[in-house]
Amino acid sequence: MTDSEFDQIFPLGAPNDAYAQYFIGQSYLAPLASGSVQVSNVSFEPGCRNNWHIHHGADGGGDQILMCTAGSGWYQAEGEAPVSMEPGTVIRVPAGTKHWHGAKSDSWFSHLAFITPGKNVSNEWLEPVTDEVYGALLENAGNE
């Protein structure tokens, strides 16, 4: 499948060059809503994933919400089993949780992503998800 054949309801967007250093593989970013709650469609080519990262916040803010809209992907919080994401899967990532997300090795993947507003909300990018960790997903999660 190519990006032009990837069927999704939101725009693919432009190559996510501003954050390319925090991804393995190519991702795309399509901003959908601005304001106090910015919403973006993030698309990942097969095998693409972002680095481990933490969203920080205070006063109830800083949670990340991921809503899978197309394709098939993974979400994993540190120390937890990976979660398979299919269209309709919604994940709330509490502020302060070290995690990553990305496409399965054989599928494009898109999700809407937004951060709940609050004071001192920030993002901390960490180490890449290694090929060893990513490759072990099949063993740990069952099937892809």
Quick one: CATH superfamily?
Answer: Jelly Rolls
For the report, how would you describe the main beta sheet?
6 strands, antiparallel
Architecture per CATH nomenclature, i.e. the level-2 architecture: Sandwich
How would you name the oligomeric state of the polypeptide chains in this document? single chain
Through-space gap between termini: 17 Å
Mean pLDDT across residues? 91
Strand order of the largest sheet: 1-3-4-12-7-10
* Count of domain modules: 1
CATH class: Mainly Beta
User: Helix-strand pattern, N to C?
Assistant: EEEEEEEEEEEEEHH
Q: Return the structural class.
A: mainly beta
Ranges with pLDDT <50 over ≥5 residues? Answer: none
Proportion of β residues? 35-45%
Helical content class:
under 10%
CATH topology: Jelly Rolls
**Shape, please?**
globular
Architecture overview:
It is a single chain. A hairpin with a 5-residue loop joins strand 3 and strand 4 (39-44). The chain has helices at 131-135, 137-141; strands spanning 14-15, 23-24, 27-33, 39-44, 49-50, 53-58, 64-71, 73-77, 83-85, 90-93, 99-103, 109-115, 119-125. By secondary structure, it is mostly beta strands. Helices cover 7% and strands 44% of the residues.
